[in-house]
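Sample A.
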Amino acid sequence: MPSNSLARWRGPAQADLDDIVDAHASVAGVGRGRRAATAQVTQAYAVLLSSHFQKFCRGLHSEAIEHVAASLTEPWARPMVRLRLTEGRKLDAGNPNPGNIGSDFNRFGLNLWARMAALDKRTAARKAKLERLNRWRNAIAHQDFADSVALDLGGGRTDLRFADVTGWRTSCDQLAATMDAAVLAHLAALVGRAPW
């Protein structure tokens, strides 16, 4: 059974992302105005994807906190553990980049990226795609496209295409499933029972 966060990622988040796909299809075309509109929708798709993946990661982290807190025999310690595990959480204010995700889950003594790589050898490639998504998210959000090296989509191409974001979406979906499994296994070992 998946975590509640993974269920939300696979349900409402995908529905929101599908709405952007539908919007892109409705404005697609070859005219100058249509090309500009599809470019804007593509950028919106990238930002929305990043925000939903951040929500998934933050939610999974919160579920992990609740599982650890619920395992404590002393009720007075639960609020303190919740506070310490959320204090300065990077996913509350920063992008869902590999560094922020890894840092937050490391609070549980979990080297998340290593555990995910052990579960699925494709994790490293997906992690690189997540990093690229977040570089593009920042460029779009801050309207700063000057760093062509950071925004390189391969072969020096820096024009974001709808297919690029769709590929990132697939990678995020696969990362979410692997992350869910990695956190479940770690928490089950840490606490002595599975969290979901």
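Sample B, a different protein:
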Amino acid sequence: MERTFKITIHMVSSLDGIIAKKDNSISWFETSDHYEKGVEITPEEAGEFLKKIDCYVMGARTYEHALELSRSYGWAYGDTPTIVVSHRNLPIERPNVEIYSGDLAKLVNERLKPNYSNVWLVGGALLSADFIRLKLADEIRLSVMPIILGDGLLFFDQIGQEQALHLKNVTAYKSGMAELHYEIKK
């Protein structure tokens, strides 16, 4: 049986589609909202889910922000292999992190597909748009926080093409966050 392979774009945004405030603060991730009908995920369930992700891909700015946050909160991606797409020379502070500079289709077909099954692209907006435009991503999981930020970096800002999606699932959480899970139609 052939191994399955998929690339999931995961993003957290405000209701107005903003994924980062201009100051890069993440305080807006914390919500005081409560949705009684929502589900709650235990830390054990979250840990089991994260174990299924066998590689992360991110852009340079997301990586730099993750490094900054790791000083206070720890490295969010654990020991899972992480590929940072960048043309810049970035500091490598973990043995499971590598920098990739080059063709994205080559990255997917020659590096990711042969070695991984469940790849998550976790930022940023430009890299996500490139993966969608090049038809390299299979699905989008958008976690919408119960807040309107009004200003900042948009998730989809001038992607440049129409893209049909198929809604696979919607999950509402007790925190008021809603996760939209879409398959990207190719």
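Observation for Sample B: Residues 72 and 149 are 24 Å apart (CA to CA).
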